[in-house]
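Section 5.1 Outputs to date
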Amino acid sequence: MTKKYDKKALLFCGLLMLITAASDALRGVFLPEFRQAFSLSEPQAGRIIMISYVGNLLFLSVGGRLSDRLPRKRFIGGVLLLWAAALAVYTFTESYTLLLVSMIFSMGGSTMLSTSVNMITPLLFVSPAMLVSIFNFIQGIGITASQNVIGRWSDSLTAWHAANAGLLLLAAVCFVILMTMKLPDPEPGAGSSAGLAAILKKPASFFLIIICGCYFVAEHGLMNWLTSYGSEHLGFTVQRSAFYLSLFFGGITVGRLVFAPFIERIGVFRSLLIWSAAGTVIYIAGMALGKNGMLLFGASGLALSIIYPMLVMLIGKFFDPSIAGSATGLILSIATLFDIAFNAFFGDLVSSLGYARAMTVLPAAAGVFCAMLFALKLCVKRSREIR
């Protein structure tokens, strides 16, 4: 374990979380522009989101296992190069087909990179729960800036090219830093016993898949569709809708910084239960109130701020350390199927039922996520103690 304040490691992890988050958020911000520039129907627009989660599935399922076998610098560097290649395509081309193909690598690569940061933080630093929260606070800055700042100029593909060019430059900086770092490698033979069937037979796996899958639908569904929902159904401008979306991720950003010290004291699992209950109630209320509830998404984001990074930490506590990476990748990749299914059918759902009814899927998913988290606490013992 390196010293607590290794500046190079801190800079690398923080910058990587910042730029991968900004890249992810651009999809939802520019979705209305994609629809107009490429003359897309709602189902076609939905495919842009759906195919990006296919990338999540591929990268997490394969990458989770490789992360327990390959030298970590080589693994993270390879994923970083694939992600940067997708940004280059966005920067220099204007093609719906290339956009779809590149979404596989940009979304899958960014998710694998941010997950890797969450997984290597306990290996690099003391007080890992606090630093995971801080790194994910920086991730929230990237999302909020992308939605609120870049969202003001999201009415042309020129802005799309410029935003990705900037991210590509920062990705190059990250790669240079990575090549000068030392990362602890997996132990010899780690992950060799990480059979998929063995992982899935664990009682916790079922609960964790449902928890992560439903949370993905609730958070990512809002990220990808709130701008369109607000501008096309509630009567807001695209810019105003992007602002409300930025409140949600702004709340997540602030919450990860403010609550970081308390997680170490309260414990990861207890914190998840407390914050998920509060956040789910506010989230459902905000969606139920429609136009009058948009401001509540800022408060729900604040309450849900710790959920994803702590879920990543929690998953590994149910498995032997030698297969924690494989188990985390497998569970998150299966949970990604929820994202894929949601985005595959959501455009058709909007076309047939309208936005008002279609959006009820999101609060329903939030409710299931919260209920299953409490069920996990009550029904399953952990292999490694975690409060």
